[in-house]
Amino acid sequence: MPDRTCLAIVLAAGEGVRMRSSLPKVLHAIGGRSLIDHVLTAAMRAGGADIAVVVGPDHAAVEAEAKRIAPKAEVFQQRERLGTAHAVLSARSALARKRDDILVIFGDTPLIRSETLAQLRGALAKGAAVAVLGFRPADPKGYGRLVMRGNDLLAIREENDGSAEERKIAFCNGGLMALAGDKALALLDRIGNANTKGEYYLTDAVAIARDMGLQAVAIETSEDDVRGINTKAQLAEAEAVLQKRLRSAALEAGVTMTAPDTVFLSTDTKFGKDVTIEPNVVFGPGVTVEDGATIRAFSHLEGARVGKGARVGPFARLRPGAELGADVHIGNFVEVKAASIEAGAKANHLAYIGDARVGEGANIGAGTITCNYDGVGKHKTDIGKGAFVGSNSSLVAPVKIGDGAYVGSGSVITKDVPADALAVERALLTVKEGWAKRFRAAMTLRKKSQR
Ligand code: UD1
Ligand code: MG
Prior knowledge:
Strand content: 25-35%
CATH topology of the largest domain: Spore Coat Polysaccharide Biosynthesis Protein SpsA, Chain A
Radius of gyration: 31 Å
Bound molecules: uridine-diphosphate-N-acetylglucosamine, magnesium ion
Largest sheet: 19 strands, parallel
Number of domains: 2
CATH class of the largest domain: Alpha Beta
Helix content: 10-25%
Low-confidence stretches: none
Number of strands: 33
Structural class: alpha/beta
Number of helices: 10
Mean pLDDT: 96
């Protein structure tokens, strides 16, 4: 819809008391992103160039999150919760600008797809004044029912206000709707609160449009699209639906997963060609895995880039700022944070590499630790190309290990090591020939004499 303007109004005034959390409901996350992030992203993808977010009182955190995702979003406050139509009207000054299409979206409906929103807009483009999303839930209890005559939507009846006959209708209101911009204020201002809840129902816009001789339509969608979140159980269900979508998309894009149901993805996880993901891998936000890389079982990655052909895990942890070059190997129980590991370098077992650069082809032995923190600040470790760090070494940052240098096993390195040098920090090794045998004989004798 390139030539139609659009305002998306996101309702995020819900207190979310049933979440039993001090975090506002829409700031809970699925797929590594807040609920309101999902909704705003879908709205923007559907062409919502103007965004209005309606928040409740004391919702500075919601406002900040909305602004982070949609910096130009206008934020309005709904001081009293008097119903969905009242919430929409809190954004009156935005509505008055008369965009072609007005989308009303609930902030707690994170699985809504931009394609579905685009369908609603499509109905307006074809002449409808109101377009709503209909779905057929397994259990319609609690939802508004869509009263249809053929393809015409006559009214939406809220559960509490419907007749017994109307409550039998299986076709329900998904909640979100699209309103023709030039009619929206006229419709909304006519909505009253003469219903069992005494609320201003957005859903009344349908019958009012009909009375004004305007057209209202319903577009059928899946239950998943309009799944609202009120509880932690529903949050977990939504996460499951999202994970299913993300896994299918990854498989479709050619990622090999032996047990996709055990792999957890973020919405922004990026995969190249011929990537293999073994079972039980978790991708937090901000991960890119390039062509031919393998992520082995039980690894946890976030904010990391895995270069071409690299191998990570099993049991590896990549934290934000981990940058692995081509063919890097990061093995079991290795943690990498804010470190760039250049092409072909290896840390195959039991190591911590933080705030560091590991040069091309360097080898990090088992048990190596970059001591990056002194209790006050963080410091950098720089390991040169082709360097060899022996097992169980502590590299006390800030420190540099030159290209091709060797660090002897068990060393605590507190000074820079020049290129091609050996640094070893150990007490002198003493070997006493025959000592153990003499020791055992003496001890055995002492034990016998004590009996
Ligand atoms: C709403 C619909 C119902 C539909 C259902 C789908 C109305 C009147 N009813 O009912 O037909 O089947 O969604 O889930 O619209 N909100 C505010 N301020 C308010 C009231 C609500 O911001 O004063 C926000 C809520 O935070 C929520 C959304 O609007 O995000 C929907 O409100 P809710 O109370 O959940 O409506 P339902 O009773 O579920
Ligand atoms: Mg609801």
